[in-house]
TrEMBL record:
PROSITE patterns: PROTEIN_KINASE_DOM, PROTEIN_KINASE_ST. Residues 1-109 form the Protein kinase domain. GO terms for cellular component: membrane. It comes from Populus trichocarpa (Western balsam poplar). It is a single-pass type I membrane protein. This is non-specific serine/threonine protein kinase. Its EC number is 2.7.11.1. It is an enzyme of class 2 (transferase). The keyword Nucleotide-binding applies. Pfam families: Pkinase. It comes from the Eukaryota. It is found in: Membrane. InterPro entries: Kinase-like_dom_sf, LRR_Rcpt-Like_S/T_Kinase, Prot_kinase_dom, Ser/Thr_kinase_AS. Keywords: ATP-binding, Kinase, Nucleotide-binding, Serine/threonine-protein kinase, Transferase.
Amino acid sequence: FMEKRTSRDHLYNRKVCLKNLSAETELTWKQRFEICIGLIKGLHYLYIGLGGEIFYRDVKSTNILLDEHYMAKVVDFDLSQLGMLNLDHINMGLNGSFGYFDPEYFRTL
């Protein structure tokens, strides 16, 4: 559980029936930028900081939780792949959530 719920709750300006989020939840552009930077730092740590051992393959707004200071936390590692940077051992099949795929991803299949 995170105090500010998911980034989706804020990006789509949904009213959330919790004591901390009972009013409008629209993010400022500065907050959005800082959330993106936090997400990038988290993904960078998973991919580079751990020696290239975790490939997170399901980035979407519901998998980005926000703490009380709107710091991004990456969750849901079900589709993640463990492995070293040797791409011969990485499952590169179609994975992720439909609607969040990079259009160029389909062209490489």
